[in-house]
Amino acid sequence: MSSIWAVVPAAGLGRRMAAEVPKQYLQIAGVTLLEHTLRALLDCAQLRGLVVALDPGDRRADGIALLSDPRVMTALGGANRAESVRSGLALLETMAEPDDWVLVHDAARPCLPLEVLMAFIDTITSTAVGGLLAQPSTDTLKQVDGDGMVASTLDRSTIWRAQTPQMFRLRILCSAFDQARNAGLRVTDEASAVEAAGHPVQIIEGPASNIKVTVPDDLELVKAHLRRMRQDKR
After folding, report:
1. Strands 160-169 and 101-104: what pairing?
2. pLDDT tens, 152-205?
3. 144: left (phi > 0), else alpha (psi -120 to 50), else beta?
4. Taking the model in full, what pTM does it have?
5. Helical H runs in the chain?
6. Three-point CA angle 151, 154, 156, nearest 5°
7. Spatial separation of the C-alpha atoms in residues 61 and 98, rounded to whole Å
8. Cα dihedral: 47, 58, 85, 165 (round 10)
9. Which of 139, 162, 177, 196 is the least buried, fewest Cβ under 10 Å from its Cβ?
C-alpha cells in the first residue's frame, strides 16, 4: 500500500502582511501559524512523514518544538514556493516510493479540520487521479486588460478558488515541477504544474474556513476559526 507524505513550504517572507516577522511565525494564542498548521497535519495518523522547507537563514524555526517530532524533517527552501516544494520532494525521493502520495499544504493555512483532511485523503487515494481542495467562486469575476479595463466577465459557475492541501503521486509531482522549470513556466501551486504536464486534476470542495493568511485582516478570521475548532473538540 502506498504511503502518504506531506511537504509544507515555509520559506516565504509574507511581504503582503507588512509584519516584522514572516507570516508563518505570527502567533495566535501564543502559538505560531506554522505550529498550528503542523499540528493539523500531524493529527492525521495516516501521515508517514512531513517535510518542512525552511529559509536557509531561518533561526526562528529553532524554537518550534514540533520540528523535533519523529515524523518531521526539514529541507532548504528556495526563492519561491515551487523551489521550496521541489526541495522537499527531493528529500522524499531518497526515502519514499515513486507511487507514494504527497500532499502539499500552505504553512499559513492552519484551519484544516482533521475530518476534512481524512476525507480528502480517502477520496484522492481511491482513484489514480491527484487533486486539490478548492472553493467555488461566489463573486462575479472580471478579466481585465493591461490598462485596467474590463475585457470580459467570466462564468463564475466554472471558477474555483484553489486551496491546499493538494495531493499527487510523488513521481508525477516531481516530473511536473521539473518539466515546468525546464519550460520556464511560472507555477503558483502544485495543480498548475501537474495540469501543464498533461495530467487530470480533481477538484474536491473544501470548507470556507480553510483560509490562508495573506493580508492582516486574514489573521482575525483565522483566530475566530481556530477558537471555534477548539470549542468543537471539547
Report:
1. antiparallel
2. 999 888 999 999 999 999 999 999 999 999 999 999 999 999 999 999 999 999
3. beta
4. 0.94
5. 33-42, 81-93, 114-125, 170-183, 190-196, 216-233
6. 160
7. 29
8. 50
9. 139
